[in-house]
Amino acid sequence: MTTGAAAPRATYVPPTDFVTTDEDLSASPLWNHDLAPTAVERRTWSTYNIAALWIGMSVVITTYTLASGLISQGMTWWQAMVTILLGNCIVLIPMVLNAHAGTKYGISFPVLCRASFGVRGANIAAMLRAIVACGWFGIQTWIGALALDALFGAAWAGWKDLPGGVAIAFAIFWGIQVLVILRGTEGIKVLESWSAPLLLGGGALLLAWGISRGGGFAHVLGQSATLQQGHAAFWTIFPAALTANVGYWATLSLNIPDFTRYAKSQRSQMLGQALGLPTTMTAFAFIGVAVTSATIIVFGQPIWDPVVLVSKIGGAGVIIFSALVVLAAQLTTNMAANVVSPSNDFSNLNPRRINYVTGGLITAVIGILMMPWKLYADAAAYIFTWLLGYSSLMGALGGILIADYWIVRKQKLWLPDLFKLQGRYTYDRGFNWRAIAALIISIAPVVPGFGHAVMTPGGVVASPNLFDHLYSYAWFVTFALSFIVYLILMMGQRDNHATSS
Q: What's the whole-model pTM score?
C-alpha cells in the first residue's frame, strides 16, 4: 500500500446538452431571480430525487380514494387499477416531453410558454394553470385539516366539543403551509427525499393491517364487490374515468419544467419520472381499495376516508402517528404540486414586483376562496366534474407546448430572447395569436358537455349527445386538436422562429 497526496476530488461535468447564456438579463422586466435560468451548479437533482418527488406527490389521500371512487361507480377493483395505471402511463408521455426543455435550458413553465404564446401571451397559459393549482391547494389543505382535526381529537377529548373545530384545524394547517412558503424554494428536494420512505412505509403498514384483520389477501379483495354502488358497464364509464386519471396529473405534465430545471441530466428526469409516477399512483390506489374492502369485514361497513379509519383502529398513539403521516403526505404534495407552479405563474405576471414567496401567498389565499370543501364533496363531483373539467384546459395547453417545442422548434430555443420584450418571441406586441386561437378552437367542442357528462346516482354516464361524448374524452380531444391546429397555423412561421440555441 502506497502513501502520498490525496487524489483530487472529481468535479461535476454538466451534460453536453445543457444550454446556458452569459448575457446579463437582470435589467429585463421579464426577469427575476426565481424565473432566471437555473445555473448549472444548481442542477443537482438525481434520478432518486425526481422519483422521490413523485412518491411524495402521489402518496396522498386523493390518490387513496381515487380507485374507491371508480369502484363505487361500478368498476371492479382490477378494472379500477388498470384504468389508473393506463391513465398514468399516458400522462407520463407529455410529462417527459415537456420536462425536456426544463432540463436542457434550466427554465420554468411560464418561461417555456413564452416561446409559443409570446412573452406577454404566456400569462394566459400560466394563469389557467395557476387557478387549477389554487383549487388543488385548497383541496389538499382541507384534507390536511381533517387529519389535524383527528389528531387534536385523539390528544384532547374536549376538542370534539369545541365549536368550529374543523375550521380551526383548517386555519392552523393553512398557516403551517404559509410558513413553509415564506421560506422559499429551499428544502423541497430534502423534504421530498426524506418523506418518500416514510410515506411508503405508512401505506405498507396500513395495507398489512387490512390484510391481517381482513382474513387474508384473497378474502379482502373478495369484499371489494360490495363497494360497487353503481351498476354501469365498464366500457360505459371507462372513457370518462380514464380521462379523469389523465387529468389527475395533467397539471404537472405542463409545469414539470419547474422541477426538471434542477435535474442532473435528461436521463435523471426521464427515469425518475417513469419509476416514480405510474408505480406509486397505482400501488397507493390499490392500498386504498384493499384497506377500504378490509373495513367491511372489520367494521361491517366501508370506510373510504383513511382519517376516519385511523380514528377507529386503536388508541391515541396510533391516531396521532397516522395523522402525522397524513399531514406529511398533504404537506409534501401541496408544497411541490400546488405551490411551486402557481408561485412561478403569478410571478410571471409582473416579475419585478411578484417573487416566488408573494406568488405562493396569492395561491394560499385563492385556495380558500375556491371553497375546496365543495370541490371534494363527493366522488362523482370530484372525479367527473373537477378532474374531467380542468383536464380539457390542460390538454389544450399541453398540445400547443409539445407541438411548438418538438415540431416547430425542434428542441431549439434562443434562451436570451425568452427574457426580452423585443426579440424572437415578441410576435404581435408580445402575443402569438396562433397559440391563443389554437387554445380556443380546441376547447370549444368540449365546453357544451361541461356539467352534463357526469355520473348519475345509478352509475350511468349521462351523455345524450355528441358534445357530452367529446367531454368524456376532454383531455384527449383538446390535446389532439390544439396540437394539429397550432402546427397548421404556425406552418408559415417556422423559418422565422425555428432558431438555434
A: 0.86
